[in-house]
Design a protein that fits this description.
Distance between the termini of chain B: 66 Å
Distance between the termini of chain A: 94 Å
Organism (chain B): Paralvinella palmiformis
Helix content of chain A: 25-40%
CATH superfamily of the largest domain in chain B: Ribosomal protein L4/L1
Family (chain B): Belongs to the universal ribosomal protein uL4 family.
Oligomer: heterodimer
GO molecular function (chain B): structural constituent of ribosome
Strand content of chain B: 5-15%
Largest interface: A-B, 18 and 27 residues
Order of helices and strands of chain B: HHHEEHHEEHEHEEHEEHEHHH
Pfam families (chain B): Ribosomal_L4
Structural class of chain B: alpha/beta
Number of helices of chain B: 12
Main location (chain B): mitochondrion
Shape of chain B: elongated
Radius of gyration of chain A: 37 Å
Order of helices and strands of chain A: HEHHEEEHEHHHHHEEH
Number of strands of chain A: 7
């Protein structure tokens, strides 16, 4: 009876059996509660209990799964998303070749909109232009371009041909001003102070890989070299370039046009520029 | 620490190396009771350890190596050390056989085998059969007042009521409440009671909480001696001593009377006994009960004397193994003569 020995040896290592740890066998013991009163008995009024079950597929009042509309969340909050109308490198090269863009000056959103080829509408949440990489292999213009969204290949195409690129954020008020400056100046309101990027894009504009305008210039210089090594082209030394001044020209983060500062009012009729003298205004508009 | 038990007598040398070496040389292992009594009374000036072995009294060891079992089983008998309470060192004096039908039940969920729930049933029965429910609450008939209709049947806008002592009312009578002294007496079936005792003894043995002693004689009536003895043997906090008689050694009675968690109990009593003196060296027990499952499980350790062991096995095996006894309900005498 080795099994007895084995079982009893198991018992030896268990806690001591005492008055506190005894249990009866599982199962119901004792009396059932008295079911008294008018409806207390065994018989129910209407059929037996099974007839009162809800129908198959009933979800307790929810719309059941076979009648539920499928949810497609791809366009959720589309009215609030930032839109960037595309501009390909092929289009940019064509504009340059046709003389619609002067490459001896820095290119920004106003330059592109003045070509009347690209439409940017701030009422459609257009936060600027997305420079796409289509035509990257034939792009050869040497430009200093400021763009709102781009990708790595487009950056490489610009820099390979000796140009420079910056991504800069503009809020919708600034976009409205830059799309049609003439209309804006006729309103007679001061040039807006460009806001900082919102939280969803501040990472993008702080990254040197995207040539963000908030990134460290030293990191941008390293990123240019890294990208050249990655894509396999020789990066020309910009300091030796005769267009060095133009190529390294950058706006202030609060500035939206070269030569004009936020807070100024441009009077086209009298061809004057009004600048604020109030120290509070100066403090507000300073970078 | 206890050594593992061996079936072979030759292995006893492992347990008694010192004794076996001195086997040829007679040696005293027990002091005479007179010496110890003198020592306890203070008339003897020597301490227990100073008592020199005397050649007059000697016991060959081991005293007990086997025992004749009634209704011998095919299963090998269980074994336990035989110990003595008269000294704290070298207290093992032999090995006794235990009947496997009593001390080695097979643990499984089946009728007439080791079951924890049988212990539960026995404890439940012992608690329940003596319980009397004295709770009693008054019905609406026994409450004072309530004969008058509190308000008219109709046109009051209130619910219709006929008595302020209706069970629906606050401070009304209670319907189907507990009524009077109610006995919860019932008898657990004989087989379950016997099985409970067998299971309890098996559990105690399997968990190393069962010890066999030669007798309950103590050299001193000082409770500290007994407490030190229990502590040196690692018997735990509470000990139940069981003898086959309802009178015990005077020292044992006095010592256990002082310590609440040490109790003495006979195997079986026919009627309640009061503690009174019957002899110079023996006292009657005041216990009203014999060995039972509740007391077994209440104490950590169960200590049986050799005589108690004989008695327990005899009584339980009579139920388990004796066909005549088992079938007495179906005998001619029980059924009655045929007409």
């Amino acid at each position: 009876m080795a099994s007895v020995e084995k079982a009893l040896s198991l018992l030896k290592n268990l806690p001591r059996v005492n008055l506190g740890n005894l249990k009866p066998l599982p199962g119901r013991r004792g009396k059932k509660p008295d079911r008294r009163g008018q409806h207390g008995g065994k018989n129910r009024g209407f059929g037996d209990g099974a007839n009162n079950l809800p129908r198959m597929g009933f979800e307790g009042g929810n719309v059941p799964f076979y009648r539920r509309m499928p949810v497609e969340p791809y366009y959720k909050d589309h009215a609030f998303r930032k839109q960037y109308p595309p501009l390909s490198l092929l289009q940019l090269q064509r504009l340059v070749d046709l003389g619609r863009i002067d490459t001896t000056e820095p290119i920004d959103l106003t330059t592109l909109c003045n070509t009347k080829v690209i439409t940017v509408n701030p009422h459609l949440k257009h936060y600027g232009i997305n420079l796409t990489d289509e035509g990257a292999d034939i792009f050869e213009a040497k430009v200093n371009i400021e763009i709102q969204w781009t990708n790595e290949i487009a950056i490489a195409a610009i820099e390979k041909s000796g140009g420079t690129i910056t991504t800069k954020f503009y809020d919708l008020q600034c976009i409205d001003a830059m799309v049609n400056p003439l209309l804006f100046f006729n309103r007679g309101i001061p040039i807006p102070r460009c806001k900082l990027p919102s939280m969803d894009v501040i990472e993008y504009y702080s990254d040197a890989k995207n040539r963000g305008y908030l990134a460290d210039p030293e990191l941008i210089r390293q990123a240019r070299i890294e990208l050249a090594q990655k894509m396999g082209y020789n990066l020309a030394d910009p300091s030796q370039d005769p267009l060095y001044e133009m190529l390294t020209k950058r706006k202030d983060p609060r500035q939206i046009w070269f030569g004009l500062s936020p807070g100024w009012v441009v009077n086209l009729k009298h061809k004057t520029v009004l600048k604020p003298n109030d120290p509070e205004l100066i403090e507000y508009y300073q970078s | 620490m206890r050594l593992p038990l061996f079936n072979s007598t030759s292995l006893i040398r492992l347990a008694f190396p010192k004794q076996c070496l001195q086997y040829g040389k007679p040696r005293l292992w027990f002091s005479t009771s007179t010496q110890l009594r003198q020592h306890a009374e203070g008339t003897d000036e020597t301490s227990i350890t100073d008592i020199e072995p005397q050649q007059t009294e000697q016991r060959n060891l081991p005293l007990v190596t086997s025992r004749k079992l009634q209704f011998p089983s095919k299963v090998a008998p269980k074994q336990a050390w035989l110990e003595t309470l008269e000294q704290t060192e070298d207290d093992i004096i032999g090995i006794v056989d235990l009947h496997p039908e009593i001390f080695g039940l097979f643990p499984r969920k089946c009728v007439a085998y080791f079951r924890i729930d049988v212990l539960w049933w026995n404890v439940f029965w012992q608690r329940e059969y003596r319980r009397v429910d004295y709770r009693q609450v008054k019905t609406r008939a026994e409450m004072p007042g309530g004969g008058r209709k509190p308000w008219q049947q109709k046109r009051t806008g209130r619910a219709r009521h006929g008595s302020i002592r209706s069970p629906l009312w606050v401070k009304g009578g209670k319907s189907f409440g507990p009524r009077g002294p109610k006995s919860h007496f019932f008898m657990l079936p004989d087989n379950l009671r016997v099985l409970g005792l067998r299971t309890g003894l098996t559990v105690k043995y399997a968990q190393n909480n069962l010890h066999i002693v030669e007798n309950l004689h103590l050299p001193s009536d000082d409770p500290t001696y007994l407490m030190n003895l229990v502590e040196s043997k690692d018997w735990g906090l509470s000990v139940l001593f069981v003898d086959d008689t309802d009178y015990i050694d005077k020292n044992m009675a006095i010592a256990t009377n002082e310590v609440k968690q040490y109790n003495v109990m006979p195997v079986y009593v026919w009627k309640p006994m009061k503690l009174f003196r019957i002899d110079e060296s023996f006292l009657r027990l005041s216990s009203a009960a014999g060995l039972n499952v509740y007391s077994m499980l209440k104490h950590e350790t169960l200590v049986l004397t050799l005589d108690a062991l004989e008695k327990i096995e005899e009584r339980l095996l009579q139920h388990v193994c004796n066909v005549d006894y088992r079938d007495k309900h179906f005998s001619l005498k029980a059924v009655g003569p045929r007409v």
